[in-house]
Amino acid sequence: MHRLIGAGAALCVLALSTQPGLAAESKECSAVRMAEPGWNDLAFTTGIANVLLQALGYQPQSQVLGINVIYEGMKNNDLDLFLGYWDPAMVTYYEPYKKDGSVENVRVNLEGAKYTFAVPTYVWEAGVKDFSDLHKFADKFGKKMYGIEPGSNQLMMDAIADPSLDLGGWQVVESSEAGMLSEVGYEIKEKQFIVFQGWAPHPMNTMYDFKYLTGGDKFYGPNFGAATVTTQVRKGYLQQCPNVAQLLKNLAFDVDFENVGMGYLINDGMKPEEAGLKAITLNKDRLDAWLAGVTTFEGKPGLAAVKEKLGL
């Protein structure tokens, strides 16, 4: 999960009816204004939405913006859609817009996200299954835990500072996501002990054999720092653009799917739309659910149009 807080996207679509009286609405809904904060999970899912909207005849636009800017954009009618409200990580960001009704939830598009301490499976099998087990193997860990960028590891530091865990003298090694994972890969190859910041969705879950630790509820929340991701829109958007609204109500993902899709970005260097297209091509069975009741911008059956446009 991590910075996984969030992501953004905005979409617009034409009404299901093709009556001439709705022409003005169709024009307004043709441009779909989305945004995301530059996090790989949200870049990937926004890429999926981009590919689908283009194939349906819309003109989607996606920008990389800060979380606050995304919410202000939806409130001020400069953006339509955001695919990345991480709950509970982004509760404080969303609260003012929830309170004034300027941003509305559409649906949870991802369940099963998590964010907490992790160790290689062989370390877990050796007896490190819970936060409270770490101190027992302090020497093997070198009293170190590995985090990501400075400023993003406060929960690790809070755990070290908690007297109940007996982690006095431990330190957090801060570097970057790539730096941390490079160290994880090296230590696993050497069969050494390492505890690090893990989250899902992320390709690390398919790259390495590791387990998440229990006992971190006080810091990360229950169920391994469990989180959901919700699609949000500006106030009134669902009513103004009901066809895109139907797509948004259908569009949902799962952790395994995103783990692989994010790998296209991180490991293969693909752009979000390229990754989205590859994921759709390899998982075309998902289109039936995603496009149920959805038409093209011109009012034609959406599923057939998308398959034809993408050569599926």
Automatic annotation (TrEMBL):
Tell me which InterPro entries the record gives: ABC_choline_sub-bd, ABC_Gly_betaine_transp_sub-bd
Q: Which Gene3D superfamilies match?
A: Glycine betaine-binding periplasmic protein, domain 2, Periplasmic binding protein-like II
Signal sequence region: 1-23
Ordered alphabetically, the record's keywords are: Signal
Cited SUPFAM superfamilies: Periplasmic binding protein-like II (SSF53850)
**Does the record's keyword annotation contain Signal?**
yes
As recorded in Swiss-Prot or TrEMBL, the protein's gene is named: choX
Annotated ABC-type glycine betaine transport system substrate-binding domain residues:
32-275
Could you tell me what this protein is called? Choline ABC transporter substrate-binding protein
